[in-house]
Amino acid sequence: MSPLRIPYTNPLPPAIVFPKTASSVAGAIDAVAAFFSAPPSPFLQGVDVGKNGQTVFLTGAGISVASGLSDYRGENGTYVRNKTYRPTYYHEFVTRHESRKRYWARSFVGWPGLVKAKPNSTHRAIAELAAKGYISCVVTQNVDSFHPAAHPGLATIELHGFLRSVVCINCHNQLPRHEFQQALTRLNPAWADFLHEMLESGALDTNNREEQQRRGLKLNPDGDVDLPHAPYSHFRYPACPHCLAHPPVLKDGSRGLVETESDGAWASPSTAGILKPAVIMFGESTSPVVRTAAEEAIDDAGRLLVMGSSLATYSAWRLVERAHHRGMAIGIVNVGGVRNESRLFGELLGERYMQNHVRCDHKSEMVLPEVVSRLPPLV
Ligand SMILES: [Zn+2]
């Protein structure tokens, strides 16, 4: 069975900093620069020697914090700041009209902040490092589309999909999220007025987080906000236009029913035409095609650098485990502990093995831009 995306909220052990000099920012910059410049790991198993000098990146929510998005687990992360936060699960979303109302209402208010948020110095450093010939591919858990925006010429594999589109769960057609936002605005005039007021007041300004928090609004990594007292029950969302025109055949062989109100809002007797964000929701299986592509990206490179991820999702941890079994050099730049890191950086692994590895407990934006400025072009 495909691994599910599930939130992992248990505490993690503290970071195992390696080498010890990487505990300071200056030491971490030296160590990460050395990681990129070192000869390929002598433990590396693989055939594609040509790319063994290159690095595959695996990134998570931590690198988008500097763009104004929240982390899941960081010092101000969603799980830390809001203990009652509970994402909408896939099975609830596909089976319950009420869940979809709640999800889309929160997403409707969160969207303008996400549109406004831009890639940051970490994404730009990745673009520059790729231009210098050091990176083979980026695999990301992030759904914010900052990677493809910052480095369109470097392949990005989006493990958990992306918020820039919505997709129909029946016919699988995609629509741009910004068009979907226009439909939500039209179907929910009172919410549109509320959103307009929030935008005018600056409460949704992602650069003004204190004001945002004062208003009780929190933009989560999945692009939604928490609206503790807003009534979701009247929120309305459109049906898939393709399924509305051509009702699909359901899995049991019956013809799906797609009914809308006169203005196009999905109506509850319907059994199909349900649009969802083009992200892997919590409790949803990851795509086998994307997973295979990510595994190939690991196998094509000689080093793996993890940034801004605690590897809490199983699909991300599995890629790192794969890299470890291949004998790849592994680097981790992440504030706070990482799932199973003692398996990667434990003292039992031996000095010669550890020589290829780096682990620092700093924010990526403190380290990577300076590293990139020091490294000479390889091509
Ligand atoms: Zn459809």
Automatic annotation (TrEMBL):
Molecular function, one GO term: NAD+ binding
Positions bound to Zn(2+): 168, 171, 240, 243
The organism's place on the tree of life at top rank: Eukaryota
Signal peptide boundaries: none
One Pfam assignment: SIR2
Gene3D superfamilies reported for this sequence: SIR2/SIRT2 'Small Domain, TPP-binding domain
All copies of domain Deacetylase sirtuin-type, residue ranges: 39-379
Keyword Metal-binding found: yes
Region ranges (Disordered): 204-223
Active site (UniProt): 160 (proton acceptor)
Family classification: Belongs to the sirtuin family. Class I subfamily.
Protein name: Deacetylase sirtuin-type domain-containing protein
Lineage: Eukaryota, Fungi, Dikarya, Ascomycota, Pezizomycotina
